[in-house]
Every structure is written in structure tokens, then in C-alpha cells.
């Protein structure tokens, strides 16, 4: 029991009066650590009364009752008549919630992926699949600031989705594409759903397929699901989904899904952002100068855009630039998001204002930049 109590201590960083069910569960563990088992039992009973579908709370209550008779070595020391699969799922959920609290990022640590948000993006979501955790970052003058985090469920077969029906959650940089309210869905999706942009341009380049990856809630008869229990979607408790839904912007909010988040300090993030920003500005200036050789030097030999490779792209750009007597290019609302699980790949999205003799247009563009031999190069370019 002592070992269990010490492990639970890390989850008790918040006050017993905290509002969310997870925070109230923390206050239960806090009482256990203090060996106040009667207090813990009262608190978990209160939690169950308010959230009768929070199955993990029942497991903790069972442990507390058994602790009166014998020491506990792990979560769910229940009788063998209870199906082990159900207990294992709850045990995994408990440990995932514990790990998230014990391994909370320090205030000076930021996810390596959010290099820059544009002024219109209120938030970014970053999912740590290994820890079953979703972190919500506010846009603090272009850089991320952690404001909340939540327990989540991912695919039954883990991550790195490659095909339809593999029951895996994709790894990558995506955006919220729609808001599907509760009234348009079955109870399975709970409080609603927010589809994300899988497969994106990078996924298609890698030959990945499938569709229908959403952020969504849970059926009304459960509070949460096991860490690995979806068909590939990211699933939150209904209360948590409703909480984050207030800050989601269709077409704007990034959803970055990583195997395990890489944390860096602010100075490292700024150094990387500045390096890529300088390269993007040089690309813009070289395009505007009509020096086609310098402009094309920014593109990788592995570049592709739809059906075009570097050779066809270069031929087209030489022909177009030769017909222009002047070109003006301005970039606005620039977003830079590093791709998880890839070596130095960054997704850059911006508004492009192009003017020349004979043509004037504004479009939202997306590029994938990758470091090759120490220099940033463009791998993909197209409309966003």
C-alpha cells in the first residue's frame, strides 16, 4: 500500500476542491498518500455520485475497500471473477493519468513542433500519444503557451496510420476541418466531433490512405475510454471535448500528433524559427528579383507538387518569369509547424499576395521545407 500511495502522490498536485473529475480524483489520491483512507473513500463516493459513469473511480473505490483487509500492490486488486480485460483497461488509464501528472512539462519547456503561429490562430493542440495526453497551447505573440491538458484515447493498434482500417492514429501536422455537433451524430460520438485533415499532403506523398480521423467525445454511459480503444480517432471525455471546443477554429487550429513530444527551451525554438524564417524571406526575395536560378536553388531535387517534379516545375517557372518585367510578392499570416517523427521537416502555411505585369492574385499556400546538407529546401508547394 505504501508503494502505491507514493506513486499516487505525484497526481495530488492540485487542491481537493478542483473542479474537474480528474482533479477530484487527484484529491482522492492525496488522501491515500496521507493514509486517510476514510477521507479518500468519502471523496471517491462523492465523485461517483456526480459522475456515475466514471468507471476508473469505481476501481479506486474497490481498492480502498480491499485495503481494509490486505495491502495493495497495484491498481485493481479485484477478485478473479471480474474480467481481467476490463480491469487492465482501467489500470492502464489510471497509470496514463498518473504519468501525465508526474511528467508534466516544466514552465520553460515547449513542444519543438510549434515554431510559429499566425496572429489569427488562437490555439494549437499537441498530442503525446505515448502518454495519452493532449496539450492545449495559447498563441502568445506567435509562440505557444500551455493553458490546459487532457487525457485522451488513441487507436487500438497505436500510431503511424498507413491505410484504411488499420485502427491506428496518424502522426503528423493536421488542422481542424469541421465542427459536427452532437445533434447530427449518434451517441457513440458523445458531445460532438471535429474532423482533422488526415491524409494531408505529406501523407499522400508517403502513400498513406484512409479517412475519418476525428477528435470526438464518448458515449453517454461512459466517462472515458481506455488509452488504446478507438479506430484511430482521438477521443476525449465529453466534458473535456466541450472545454476545448470553445477554442477550436475551423481551418485554423493545428492538431499536431506525436509519438512522444520533444521538449525544448524557448531560445532553441526561437533559433530554429529564425533560421527557417530567414530562408523563407530569401526565397520570397529571390522570386521577386526574377533571378530564376537563385529562386529555383531553394527547391529540393526531390521536390514534387501534384504531378510536377523539379524538372517540370523549373521549366514552367523559367517560362513564366521570362515573360515578366516586374514581380512583387508579399507573405502574410505565416505559420511554421515542425513535423513529428520526421527529420527536419516543417510545414509552412501563409497568405501569398502576388502581383506582376499581367497578373494579380492572393492565395493561401502551403510548403514543406526540409533540411538538406544543412540548408532548408522546399519539398512540396501548393494551395492550402
List the helices and strands and how they pair.
Layout (H helix, E strand, L loop, with lengths): L1 H8 L11 H13 L3 H14 L4 H12 L17 H19 L6 E3 L2 E3 L6 E6 L4 E8 L2 E9 L2 E2 L16 E4 L4 E2 L10 E4 L5 H5 L8 E3 L11 E3 L3 E2 L2 H8 L8 E5 L4 E3 H24 L2 H5 L2 E7 L2 E2 H13 L4 E12 L6 E12 L2 E14 L2 E9 L1
Parallel strand pairs: 3-13, 6-11, 10-12, 15-20
Antiparallel strand pairs: 1-14, 2-17, 3-4, 4-5, 7-13, 8-9, 9-10, 15-16, 17-18, 18-19, 19-20
Helix pairs in contact: 1-2, 2-3, 3-4
Detailed description of the structure:
The chain is α+β, with helices and mostly antiparallel strands. The protein contains ten helices and 20 strands. The strands form five sheets. It has a seven-stranded mixed β-sheet with strand order 2-17-18-19-20-15-16. It has a five-stranded mixed β-sheet with strand order 5-4-3-13-7. It is elongated, with a radius of gyration of 25 Å. Residues 5-18 have low confidence and may be disordered.
Amino acid at each position: 500500500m505504501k508503494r502505491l500511495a507514493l506513486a499516487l502522490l505525484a497526481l495530488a498536485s492540485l487542491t481537493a476542491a478542483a473542479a474537474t473529475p480528474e482533479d477530484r480524483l487527484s484529491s482522492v489520491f492525496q488522501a491515500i498518500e496521507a493514509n486517510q483512507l476514510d477521507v479518500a473513500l468519502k471523496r471517491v463516493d462523492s465523485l461517483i455520485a456526480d459522475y456515475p459513469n466514471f468507471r476508473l473511480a469505481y476501481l479506486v473505490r474497490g481498492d480502498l475497500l480491499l485495503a481494509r483487509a490486505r495491502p495493495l500492490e497495484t491498481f485493481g486488486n479485484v477478485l478473479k471473477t471480474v474480467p481481467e480485460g476490463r480491469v487492465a483497461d482501467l489500470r492502464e488509464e489510471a497509470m496514463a493519468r498518473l504519468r501525465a501528472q508526474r511528467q508534466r512539462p516544466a514552465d520553460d519547456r515547449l513542444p519543438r513542433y510549434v515554431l510559429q503561429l499566425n496572429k489569427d490562430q488562437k490555439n494549437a493542440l499537441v498530442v503525446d500519444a505515448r502518454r495519452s495526453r493532449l496539450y492545449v497551447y495559447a498563441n502568445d505573440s506567435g509562440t505557444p503557451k500551455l493553458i490546459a491538458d487532457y487525457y485522451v484515447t488513441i487507436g487500438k493498434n497505436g500510431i503511424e496510420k498507413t491505410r484504411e482500417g488499420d485502427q491506428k492514429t496518424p502522426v503528423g501536422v493536421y488542422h481542424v476541418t469541421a465542427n459536427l455537433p452532437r445533434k447530427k451524430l449518434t451517441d457513440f460520438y458523445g458531445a460532438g466531433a471535429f474532423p482533422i485533415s488526415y491524409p494531408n499532403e505529406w501523407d499522400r506523398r508517403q502513400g498513406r490512405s484512409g479517412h475519418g480521423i476525428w477528435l470526438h467525445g464518448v458515449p453517454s454511459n461512459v466517462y472515458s475510454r481506455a488509452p488504446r480503444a478507438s479506430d484511430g480517432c482521438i477521443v476525449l471525455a465529453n466534458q473535456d471535448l466541450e472545454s476545448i471546443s470553445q477554442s477550436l477554429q475551423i481551418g485554423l487550429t493545428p492538431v499536431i500528433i506525436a509519438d512522444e513530444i520533444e521538449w525544448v527551451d524557448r531560445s532553441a525554438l526561437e533559433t530554429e524559427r529564425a533560421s527557417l524564417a530567414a530562408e523563407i524571406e530569401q526565397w520570397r526575395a529571390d522570386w521577386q528579383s526574377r533571378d530564376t536560378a537563385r529562386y529555383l536553388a531553394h527547391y529540393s531535387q526531390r521536390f514534387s507538387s501534384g504531378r510536377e517534379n523539379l524538372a517540370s516545375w523549373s521549366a514552367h517557372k523559367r517560362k513564366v518569369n521570362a515573360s515578366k518585367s516586374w514581380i512583387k510578392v508579399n507573405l502574410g499570416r505565416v505559420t511554421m509547424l515542425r513535423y513529428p517523427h520526421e527529420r527536419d521537416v516543417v510545414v509552412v502555411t501563409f497568405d501569398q499576395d502576388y502581383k506582376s505585369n499581367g497578373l494579380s492574385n492572393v492565395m493561401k499556400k502551403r510548403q514543406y521545407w526540409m533540411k538538406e546538407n544543412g540548408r532548408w529546401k522546399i519539398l512540396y508547394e501548393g494551395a492550402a
